[in-house]
Write a structure and sequence with these properties.
Largest sheet: none
CATH superfamily: 23S rRNA-intervening sequence
Number of helices: 5
Distance between the termini: 36 Å
Shape: elongated
Structural class: mainly alpha
Strand content: under 5%
CATH architecture: Up-down Bundle
Oligomer: single chain
CATH topology: de novo design (two linked rop proteins)
Number of domains: 1
Helix content: over 70%
Radius of gyration: 15 Å
Length: 122
């Protein structure tokens, strides 16, 4: 992804959550090997993928209650992704620290968007 594409907001949330999960995977591949990074990376990969997977499930939900539950799970996973990213960032001397910072900000933005959807749906 080019710098111009990274700075341009994506309004298709399915695509945006997919790109987030993909970028997290590419970031995890750059981490120096340690037992902590391996375990934290696994948790981060699961959480980041779950953001988009649950958002897609919400879009196919059978009821408003099901929709809200899936969106809440997606928001929870966005928050968890931010936690793992911050933990990795603060326990490593990363050459690509700016990418970790960008991904943390994206997890925060996704959480805010999903929170807004929840509020508007209630």
């Amino acid at each position: 992804m080019t710098e111009k594409q990274k700075s341009k907001p994506i309004y298709d949330l399915e695509e945006r959550t997919f790109i987030f999960a993909k970028d997290v995977r590419l970031f995890v591949k750059t981490l120096p090997y340690s037992i902590a990074n391996e375990e934290d990376g696994k948790q981060l990969i699961k959480a980041s993928g779950s953001v988009g997977a649950n958002y897609r499930e919400a879009n196919e939900s059978l009821s408003k209650k099901d929709f809200l539950m899936r969106i809440k799970i997606s928001r929870k996973e966005a928050k968890e992704s931010g936690f793992w990213l911050r933990l990795i960032r603060e326990t490593n001397s990363l050459k690509n620290d700016n990418e970790a910072f960008r991904l943390i900000n994206e997890s925060i933005e996704l959480k805010k968007i999903l929170s807004s959807i929840i509020e508007k749906t209630k």
